[in-house]
Design goal:
- By secondary structure, the chain is α/β, with parallel strands linked by helices.
- It has two domains: 123 residues, Alpha-Beta Complex (Aspartate Aminotransferase, domain 1), CATH 3.90.1150.10; 230 residues, Type I PLP-dependent aspartate aminotransferase-like (Major domain) (Aspartate Aminotransferase, domain 2), CATH 3.40.640.
- The protein is built from twelve helices and twelve strands.
- The strands form three sheets. A seven-stranded mixed sheet has the order 2-8-7-6-5-3-4, with helices on both faces. Strands 9-10-12 form a three-stranded antiparallel sheet.
Length: 364
């Protein structure tokens, strides 16, 4: 099996797995304590959570606090549902942002989706022309999950702040891979995209900013996110973040080598998204007339995607590819290859051999 779907999820790092084991607990273990309990087992578990919080925070800009959540979707929803003032976002955002439009509007708050440039980056001229004194929040990705395009986040934050609006950044695909620029007021991330466990993420909130809780109960997580934390998930997330912090330059160099080799091998395929402003671990390409469903069926040893894992199986063309100007036919003839830390050059070469052969069998 060749795994090339790193945007959907990443293999759990052995360091993260080891960090989790003690806190999974058992009848003869002292690692099963509730981190919100006042006794010794609870304090031990709470200490593990706080170590993890510091590890996760090490990849953020200074001047904010980390709130653990069940994942980036919850983190994004928390910030969006707490918006004071109208929301502006972009057509290539994740469904976790775009699908909040209805609930936000039901709160009596405007929610407008802006276009992007043909390379997939946020259209800052349109943002500048649209934003106004009634805008409370601008939501924008750091790295797009489908095409790997990197948004000009610093410039976007400057525009938003000049008009008195806050910025929510979906950094799921960028956190731990590239340096998160300063400027955002909220940043959402997910553990399983950086070789950590599934079921945990975080919302970084700039100091001095308050949000209403999305979930009510015991008032855990600084009153913003009630519910008992899992020390095991926190520890695994923290270990993955610490590893990403130490390896960020090494991982980036490795991924760029993989990108260069892949670009040599996928001759005749057209790149979707920016060729310059991008994360090199995302290769979204198309071939005219390609039947992607048939390709997936025939090339079963390569794990790749036709778009976002969250929307796979819907049968609809990718909203991201349509937003950058592709026709439905072009969008449906596109595949996404995602690679990272544990991918080898040999994986790329074998995958290219199989995928190219599969496309040629279709006569495209």
């Amino acid at each position: 099996m060749i795994y090339l779907d790193y945007q959907a999820t990443t293999p759990l790092a052995s360091e993260a797995r080891e960090a989790m084991l003690r806190w999974l607990g058992g009848p003869e273990s002292d690692g099963f304590g509730n981190p919100h309990s006042a006794h010794r087992l609870g304090r031990q578990a709470a200490a593990a959570v706080e170590v993890a919080r510091e590890q996760v925070a090490s990849l953020f800009p200074p001047g904010g606090r980390v709130i653990f959540t069940s994942g980036a979707t919850e983190a994004l929803n928390t910030a969006l549902r707490g918006a004071i003032g109208n929301v502006l976002t972009f057509a290539t955002e994740h469904a976790a942002v775009l699908d909040c439009g209805g609930p936000v509007r039901e709160q009596g708050i405007g929610f407008e989706v802006l276009p992007v440039l043909p390379d997939g980056r946020a259209d800052l001229n349109t943002l500048e022309a649209t934003i106004g004194p009634d805008t409370g929040l601008v939501a924008a990705m750091l790295v797009n999950n489908e095409i790997g395009t990197i948004n000009p986040l610093a410039e976007l934050c400057s525009i938003a702040h000049r008009h008195g609006a806050l910025v929510l950044c979906d950094a799921v695909q960028g956190y731990g891979r590239i340096v998160v620029p300063e400027g955002a007021d909220f940043i959402a991330i997910s553990g399983h995209k950086i070789h950590g466990p599934k079921g945990i993420g975080a919302l970084w909130v700039r100091d001095g900013i308050d949000l209403p809780p999305l979930m009510h109960g015991g008032g855990q997580e600084q009153g913003l996110r009630s519910g008992t934390l899992s020390p095991a998930l926190c520890a695994g997330f923290g270990a993955a973040a610490a590893l990403a912090h130490d390896r960020i330059a090494e991982d980036a160099a490795h991924v760029e080598r993989l990108w260069d080799r892949a670009r040599e091998l996928f001759v005749g395929w057209i790149l979707n998204g920016s060729a310059e402003h991008r994360w090199w671990g995302n290769l979204n390409i198309r071939r005219e007339g390609l039947d992607v469903g048939r390709l997936m069926s025939e090339v079963r040893d390569v794990m790749f995607s036709a778009g976002s894992a969250c929307a796979s199986g819907s049968g609809r063309p990718s909203h991201v590819l349509r937003a950058i100007g592709l026709s439905d036919a072009e969008a449906k003839s596109s595949i996404r290859l995602g690679f990272g830390r544990y991918t080898t050059i040999e994986d790329i070469e074998r995958a290219a051999e199989l995928l190219n052969a599969g496309a040629e069998l279709q006569g495209v």
